[in-house]
């Protein structure tokens, strides 16, 4: 675990956000090369990549705030911090680093000051993939329409570029310690260091005596999802794309495969996930997006035929 990947001129670079940005840059470069290869405007892909990064982070953060179970914590941090519990012992709570307030009656720590903008601090962690996908898709639709770039061709590019970027992002999750899994006795289980999100979660669940302890071994769900994402990117780029029968098929394949894989991996996740009906928010959204992928696939050949007929009439 390495929350800060490196420091440059006294400025720390968070591992999660740095690797997420690296993944987006690689995906954008790949998209620009792809656009040039098919005779389209490569500059449009660069503009698109920047816009999708900004809107994707905004969407990912907003869905985290609303759906991951932290909404009222963010509200109380602004209005009444005494209603927010921190997993620190008394000594650490009262240290200058934490600056907390110790509640002797309950034996818990509370934040010492209000923070009405904690919900917006995306660099501190707390981003959801599906929120990012929705936000980035909205930006893509607007920009592609403005630049008159074929939407479904660009969607097919996203079908292999997005999971490539996601593969890097999940490695950032591993280094940051977030998105951890449930306890396991498997030989590949990972223990996270003291004061990590896994230690905090297990302390809250009364599985550890102290937040300042190594966590019990957990499923490395970050590695699972990174490996799956990179495999989907390779499959969509080298197998589906050369054989596609209509524009949008690569994107539909990516959307369906990722939704199914993420649905399964969610059963091994142990961080706060939100949701209902014994399913996490990501699983519920995954069901919707898997059905959307099936709809794109069913309508794809018909859409392609209509486009050819329209082009013939127009010419």
TrEMBL record:
Question: According to the UniProt record, what class of enzyme is this?
Answer: transferase
* Highest taxon of the lineage: Bacteria
Q: Which residues bind a 1,2-diacyl-sn-glycero-3-phospho-(1'-sn-glycerol)?
A: 170
The family this protein is said to belong to: Belongs to the Lgt family.
Name the record gives this protein: Phosphatidylglycerol--prolipoprotein diacylglyceryl transferase
Keyword list (alphabetical) reads: Cell membrane, Membrane, Transferase, Transmembrane, Transmembrane helix
Q: Name the residues that span the membrane.
A: 15-36, 48-67, 127-144, 156-183, 223-241, 248-265, 277-296
Keyword Transmembrane in record: yes
Q: What's its EC? A: 2.5.1.145
Q: Name one molecular function that GO assigns to this entry.
A: transferase activity
Job description of the protein? Catalyzes the transfer of the diacylglyceryl group from phosphatidylglycerol to the sulfhydryl group of the N-terminal cysteine of a prolipoprotein, the first step in the formation of mature lipoproteins.
Q: How does it sit in the membrane?
A: Multi-pass membrane protein
Q: Where is it localised?
A: Cell membrane
Q: Entry's InterPro entries? A: Lgt
Keyword flag Transmembrane helix: yes
Kindly report the protein's main subcellular placement as a broad class: membrane
**Matching Pfam families:** LGT (PF01790)
């Amino acid at each position: 675990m390495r929350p800060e990947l490196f420091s440059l001129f006294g400025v720390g670079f968070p591992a999660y956000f740095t690797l997420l940005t690296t993944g987006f840059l690689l995906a954008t470069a790949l998209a620009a090369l792809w656009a040039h290869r098919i005779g389209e405007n490569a500059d449009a892909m660069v503009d698109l990549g920047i816009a999708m990064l900004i809107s994707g982070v905004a969407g990912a953060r907003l869905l985290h705030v609303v759906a991951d179970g932290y909404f009222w914590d963010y509200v109380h941090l602004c209005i009444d911090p005494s209603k927010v519990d921190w997993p620190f012992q008394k000594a650490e709570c009262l240290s200058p680093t934490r600056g907390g307030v110790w509640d002797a009656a309950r034996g818990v720590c509370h934040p010492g000051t209000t923070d009405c903008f904690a919900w917006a601090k995306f660099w501190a962690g707390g981003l959801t993939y599906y929120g990012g996908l929705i936000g980035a898709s909205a930006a893509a639709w607007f920009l592609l329409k403005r630049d008159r770039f074929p939407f479904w061709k660009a969607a097919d590019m996203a079908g292999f570029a997005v999971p490539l970027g996601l593969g890097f992002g999940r490695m950032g999750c591993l280094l940051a310690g977030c998105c951890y899994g449930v306890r396991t006795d498997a030989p590949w289980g990972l223990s996270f260091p003291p004061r990590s999100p896994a230690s905090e979660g297990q302390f809250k669940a009364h599985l550890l005596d102290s937040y300042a302890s190594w966590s019990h071994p957990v499923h490395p769900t970050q590695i699972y999802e990174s490996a799956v994402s990179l495999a989907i990117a390779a499959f969509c780029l080298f197998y589906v794309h050369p054989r596609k029968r209509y524009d949008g098929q690569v994107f539909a394949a990516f959307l369906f495969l990722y939704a199914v894989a993420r649905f399964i991996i969610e059963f091994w996740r142990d961080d706060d996930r939100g949701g209902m009906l014994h399913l996490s928010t990501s699983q519920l959204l995954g069901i919707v997006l898997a059905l959307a992928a099936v709809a794109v696939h069913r309508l794809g050949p018909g859409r392609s035929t209509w486009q050819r007929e329209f082009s013939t009439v127009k010419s």
